[in-house]
Amino acid sequence: MNFLEKYNLPDPVCKYKWGWSTIRLLEGTTNSCHRVKSDSITPETYANFHNTPSKISDRTKMLNGQWPGNGCEYCKDLELAGAKSDRTDINEGLLDVPVNTSTTEVHLIPTMVEVYFNNLCNLGCIYCSAEYSTVWEVEDVKFGLADSHTLQDRNRAREQYPAMLAAHWEWLKNNAHGIAQYNILGGEPFFQPEFEQNIEFFENNPCPDLRFTIFSNLKVSKDKMKRILDKVESLRVRKHIKQFQIVCSLDCWGPEQEYIRTGLNMKKWEENFNILLNDYPNFKLHIHSTLISLTMQTLPELVNKVTEWNKLRYVQHSINFADGRPNMHVGIFPNGHFKKQFKRAIKFTDTNEKKEWLVGFEKRVNAQKYDPDLVRELKETLDAFDKRRGTDWRKLWPWLDQYEL
Amino acid sequence: MDRLEPFLKVDIHAGQHRWKFPKTPSIPFTVNQFGYRCTHVMPPSTDYILVAGCSHTFGEALKNEERYVTLLENHFQLPVLNIGVRGGSPNLVRDNLLQLLSSGYTLPKYMIIQWPNEYRLWFDTWSINAHVPVKQFKQFYKDDCLKNVSQMSYNHTQWLLKNANIPSFQFKIWPSENDINMPWINIVDLAIDGHHPGTITNQNIAKLVIDNVGRL
Questions:
Q1: Regarding beta strands B80-84 and B49-53, do their DSSP bridges make them parallel or antiparallel, or are they unpaired?
Q2: CATH of A117-146+179-401, one of 3.30.450.20, 3.40.640.10, 3.80.30.10, 1.10.3720.10
Q3: Residue of A nearest to B90 (CA)
Q4: What is the average per-residue pLDDT within B51-80?
Q5: How far apart are CA A157 and CA A269, in angstroms?
Q6: Residue A151 and residue B141: Cβ atoms within 8 Å?
Q7: Is the interface score ipTM higher than 0.90?
Q8: The pTM is what?
């Protein structure tokens, strides 16, 4: 049932804002949707992460029928362009998770919790940043990419990390029974001690109603992956968790993807994904793609792959824009520039729902104004990547190399 | 490649090289396809010992047989893979271990780590040593950023080793390399470049390692 109808709530109330909290322990921040501005949290204020002053203020505005801003424009723009948005999707039941609320309550307990423990990662995706990747962190410091304030904040955050982690386990001990959806992102969970500590936590604190999800880049040895996943499957079988989902990050296909997700080996990724497909039939599988202009060339091949995998078993596929990198956005090119790629992707799609998503994305891309300055910036950014990383973008995207400004 | 590379490629100048210093015979050395001074298949499918570190482990300005890594191989009678890198840094030790654990290749029976100076940072095929004045690396970067990244790299490495059940012995050359309490070795002689540990120091390193590792 629609979330708004169920609780008699007005537009633009959003289930994310009501029931969801993302916590970045290393960074010391929280928000109730990854599109919106983050609030700072400390070990002392940790227990109140779902009810920060700005979250309360945003909820109040929404109850009064106002878009709160602070990043909610992402959904507002999509909805104005006639497309589906994250908000409409979650309200219509994308995540079938209860939210404990009433028509007026703004102080709430989250039922969907997403945790970024730390940034230990073995990839340096070009649209990522030091907060989520140690590869980026080293690049940042070495090449002086971050200003001194950012670096000072990062150092402070790192110092308080042990206390933040302790506060998280404490909060979880008291509240895990009420969580319906619990996500771990990274960094790369397969290499993070906290992921295995969390498995241990569910071993000792069964949460039979909890759906457990991790986001992985699948750059992990087969043996290590299976060893950890076998433990999770054991939790599921013994009803210590309700369900396990693995969200595999992949944006497009081929060498283009190996450039974008620097450090990735596509063949190895596919080997590991096939293990998930065949050896773990009870795990939900999900591909999550981040859309930038560079992924458009081989996005259709990925869509086609998902359609093939779907013949074996259901594999969910979601796509979003990398909005933190304006010069990588698909919409900075002239209207219709990626028409052929969208058409091919839609042709390979096997579900109406995904077709609708892709049509909506194309609409939003076309609603954006051509920005030659950002295209120029994109080329400069890629040149800088090549210089630092020893790569060569011009070989992979000759159309962009030849694109005249 | 059918599989992920086992180690990060750290030097593009693979092949035969030679150290030349006045009044001393030149010393030949070979760098393999990944950029390491190691002649073994990397990694072998049999038991092996993995040694990580900086130029002290690479064996700068030393003959192959003078390096502590070779002395360890003779003692333990196991292939010793040397992933010591000239200008190597603590984050490179972590990232190389992360790469090996991601790759699916055979893991070492034992790992020895000579921790490089904590004011170093490695990215791709280039190193930065903050002892050398570099414009953007002022005191703040040195004391806060570099040290911070290096200490976190040390912590990550401990976790990765523990999680993969790889026993290890870890040491440093100078006590000032980092603030971490670990065995260290004093340099009592120098190699022909006049900067790096000489043959007696390398024998002392080998003895320190052997005494601490025991039987394998």
A1: parallel
A2: 3.80.30.10
A3: A138
A4: 97
A5: 32
A6: yes
A7: no
A8: 0.90
